[in-house]
Amino acid sequence: MRRSIASCLMAVLAAVPAAAASSSAPEAGAAGALANLPIKEVTVFKDGHAFVLHEGRMPTDDAGRVVLDYLLAPVLGTFWPYAADAKKARMVGVTAGKRILPVRRTSLTVAELIEGNPGAKVRIREAGAKDEKAPRETYEATIVGIPARSTDELARTGPPGAEPRLPERSGLVLLRTAGGVKAVPMAGIEDLTFLEGPDPGVAREEFRNVLTLQMDWGGRKPDKTADVGMVYLQRGIRWIPNYRVEIDGKGTAHVRLQATLLNELADLRDVRAHLVIGVPTFAFKETVDPISLQQAVAQLSSYFRQDAQTAYAFSNTIMTQAARMTEARAPAEGPPPGGAAADLGPDVAAGRKNEDLYIFTLDRITLKKGERMVVTVAEYDLPYKDVYLLDLAFGPPPEARQRFNSNQQLELARLMAAPKAVHNVRLTNKSVHPLTTAPAMIFRDGRALAQGMMKYTAAGAVGDLEVTAAVDIAVEKREKETGRVPNAANWHGTKFDRVDLAGNIHLVNHRQEAVQVEVTRHILGIVDSAGQNGRVEQASWTEGGWANADALPPWWSWYGWGAWWYEFNGLGRITWKIALEPGKSIDLEYAWHYFWG
Description:
The chain is mainly beta and about 600 residues long. It is built from 7 helices and 33 strands.
């Protein structure tokens, strides 16, 4: 038996209030679903990881839970939520998952205005018929609502185990008129007039990733708010240190440490930021904690005190992940393009040592996600002196060199090109904190001299900062073979020749003042003598120290060195420290030998 249109409309009308309630009200217990727990502190490492602390008073739902609209991607094992006031409530767990929640936005279309104003009195004019002369109907009505299939209905009528779906809305609107309830296609409404001011917004359901903090209120009625927090380690904030070194020519250098902050994580507002010198190695830094609900971490920008609230969490969470502590040695990346400096002058607090790390603290940092900030961290005066360093690497023996191909011969000639002394500023770090590895601009009398790389220098230690090649210090190196003894050694029935060599390094000071020159000559073989009070160091291939695999030149792999080589020959190093007066010269002499078979 067919049902009349009127009876169908009445059935739909009965379903509309429930559907409207389902689509416009939050899920049970989601009153605080769109709340964001504010960030209070961040501890920022130079490799782009940050230890983040959120804390605040958040609204609770009917069940006493705190629901946060915040998507995390913490490093595995570093996410730790907590209840800030354990006397009132205790946190028993955190649930991460997708939920359908209403999100309110400004209405931009007629359909959205209708959806956001159920019960409003309106004047409607529908589009006319195809005949343009036909009169267009205008009437007053009350918006009843838009028919919709709720999420619950779709789940109930869908196949078992299907994924949740957002509500399905009709293209019709139900209007209560003097003659009854009328179903009108919203696309056919030509003019809509609200007889009273409309609500400009509409709430529509969306899938959101939320964190639900489960609270234990001890059997009593939950408060409307709860003090909660969470700490975690996540990649997304990086600081790049850089130095300005102003030398006065009289032995004092004014050093200023500046930090460039890059924020790709979340908005920061009036937070305390700790900038860390030293990079701990986190065992699981490439593994995202499952709480993140992400299959992969979003790709980031290519640049990636004890009274602090994070001090306790820092020592108990970060340190447990640290397999070893090292100072970054890789060349620092350049500054980001278009870095935006925040219009805020943060207070800079004195840093403090935390085991092998050193921490600078900045207060009241405001930096939105995607912004960059440059801020001065520390300034101090350090004593320095000018030194000129000449480092002469060892080359392959002629017997090995003759087996290189033409391209290798050209590359070797480039590597062994005319050596030059290099002007360095030797800084004595008398500050209370270390100098970190970072780019350094060097100035004198307000003019830029060069940009070098500041190397890690502990408090109280001495470090060299390269300025430029010293063209006024002439260098000439001459070496020759002085003798060859056939069958000088025997190893497992194989006879080896002894090759003796002598060298001379000629230096001339063309500057108008005396200079301090430090010369280092590396030798492939055994050092026999070094004149002019040269200091000799000899290392075998098994002792390690300065004679390690990292010290071997690129050409070392071009020749197959037999086991006999390592049996008879080692690595030598000769060091001279000399004062060279203006216009004077000096000859540094040395001799060495090696065995070849």
